[in-house]
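Q: What changes when nicotinamide-adenine-dinucleotide is included in the input?
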Amino acid sequence: MKVLVTGGAGYIGTHCLVELIKAGITPVVYDNLCNASLESLARVERISGQAVAFVQGDIRDPDALTALFKAHRFDAVLHLAGLKAVGESVAKPLEYYDNNVVGTLRLLEAMTAQGCVNLVFSSSATVYGDPQALPIDEEQPIGATTNPYGTSKYQIERMLADWACATPDARVIALRYFNPVGAHPSGLIGEDPKGIPNNLMPYVQQVAAGKLQRLSVYGDDYDTADGTGVRDYLHVVDLAQGHLAALRKLTTMAAGKTAVNLGTGIGLSVLQLVRAFEAACGASLNYQVVARRPGDIAACYADPAHAQEWLGWRAQLGLPQMCEDAWRWQSSNPSGYADT
Ligand SMILES: NC(=O)c1ccc[n+]([C@@H]2O[C@H](COP(=O)([O-])OP(=O)(O)OC[C@H]3O[C@@H](n4cnc5c(N)ncnc54)[C@H](O)[C@@H]3O)[C@@H](O)[C@H]2O)c1
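A: The predicted holo structure follows.
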């Protein structure tokens, strides 16, 4: 099986590559490197003991995509390429709609033209907006998004549903990730944010490494066990294995589009994550409780039953493993891939 991995040089993409190669699947990475470096692929090669085919290009470039699909006969596409910073999407909405929505449109055009109609897409729990009930299952309405990033994922999901309806034999799985964290246990690949991290775990990692002074915990008066926000943190290796399960499912599922949550189903608070990270790194973390952030919700965690029943996938790795692996990556690569 040969699979195109758009955005394959990024955080989640590199972990997917490791699992694909382990399973005997041949990936071809297509990435414009706007948020990644070639070193990440060199690290995947070190872990896997295999060369990884790479083409530098943008998903919005129709000519480059046509050349790519003519050069390879892909059985499926894992579409991870996209911009993902919520705050940046509020400041630069058009960039997000152009990159994420228009980019996916161009990719679908190229796939249709070349008769490759099997797709696994990186969606996000942000498509649910403020959830109506917990845990969140796939039947909950989507679209009441709270930022352009989330809206771009919602619009893409709608476009995929319409495309799957109109395209004979098209098979699409939208994976709605909850909160991917951690790193490969080798410590060779992990999340390498540019500038100040947007997400909690990389921020915590950099506080532990002394690169950032203090963590701000936004609110401890939510209606949760310890008052801090609750999220569904998921080990990135589990997430990558979810992609493998989805790729396998493409070969047996009925034509059409299906959405699947990828989460553990366990809600963990900010303070629980901080305590677990302190245990992993052997030091206490400097943090301060500050006011709530506008737009943040109290709790968000998945109902993972559909993934278990339909994909045969469930998360295996717990919070201690997430923190230990994140710390191994951070402490052995204090400046990320730039250390090389
Ligand atoms: N990390 C998360 O918390 C999270 C949660 C939910 C969904 N997602 C989605 O998963 C996907 C992967 O996320 P990630 O955390 O690995 O992010 P990442 O930024 O590390 O990886 C995305 C990759 O896509 C590439 N890319 C971006 N725009 C491109 C374009 N126009 N053409 C070609 N390549 C392009 C980047 O260079 C990068 O290598 C994204 O679509 C993201 O929205 C991520």
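Observations recorded in class: The first helix runs from residue 11 to 22.
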